[in-house]
Amino acid sequence: MITQKPPSTVSSTASGPKQILVSWLHVNQNINNDTIAGVTYDVYRDGTLIAEDVAGPTFRDGTGNDLNYSTSYTYKIISRYTPIGGTYGSDWFSLESATTTATTDANVNPVITSFPETQHGVEGDTITLNVDSNDPDNENFTYADFPINYSWT
Fold first, then answer.
1. Residue 20's beta-bridge partner residues?
2. pTM for the model
3. What is the pLDDT along the chain (153 residues), one digit of tens a residue?
4. Which terminus of the chain has fewer CB atoms gathered within 10 Å of its CB, N or C?
């Protein structure tokens, strides 16, 4: 049953690697302008419901690593209200909010640094190579992803 106003001022922005923050103004009135409390929200991405009963008025998408780099996503919000004495399933809904679109950030490659830069020894010797990394995306990766090339001179 449509009984309340849709969320307004819906916006979205990239908020980290493969994450988007969606925000909106909290709904606190029904279509008769009566004050209501306990409103929750359903969040849709590209037409698919991705979160129900969000306390809102913000939602961070991409925490499950389900978004891609440099990709645009469109969001809409529907408010949900269970009247006093009502049971779950007898919720009252709003019309859909306006949509908002945001694009995730591009991938930034990690920087691998080895020190000391030059190792000395003879072929067959064991040498130690210390490696440090800085990944601006804070993604998990293994050093196997970055082969180390070496040669004996």
1. 14, 61
2. 0.70
3. 566 778 889 999 998 778 999 999 988 877 777 788 788 899 999 999 999 999 989 999 997 678 998 999 999 999 888 766 655 555 677 877 889 999 998 887 766 666 665 666 666 666 665 666 666 666 655 555 555 665 555
4. C
| Closest by Cα among 35, 44, 11 to 25 | 11
Tokens read off for 57: 């008025």
Angle at 135 between CA 131 and CA 140, to 5 degrees: 90
What is the CB neighbour count within 10 angstroms for residue 16? 14
Q: Could you tell me which residues come within 8 angstroms of residue 11 by beta carbon, excluding any fewer than 6 positions away?
A: 22, 23, 24, 100
